[in-house]
Amino acid sequence: MSDRSRWSAYRWHLIRPLPVAAPVNHALDEVLTRRVGAGERHPTLRFWGRIEPEVVIGRFQSVRNEVDEAAARRYGIQIMRRLTGGGAMFVEPPNVITYSLYAPQELVAGMSFVESYAFLDAWAIEALRSLGIDAWYEPINDMTSSGGKIGGAAQARRFGAVLHHATLAYDLNSDRMLEVLRIGKEKLSDKGITSAAKRVGPIRQQTNLPRDVIVERMIETFARWCGGLAEGQVTAAEMEEAGELIRTKYGTREWIYTLP
Question: How many domains does the chain have?
Answer without folding.
Answer: 1
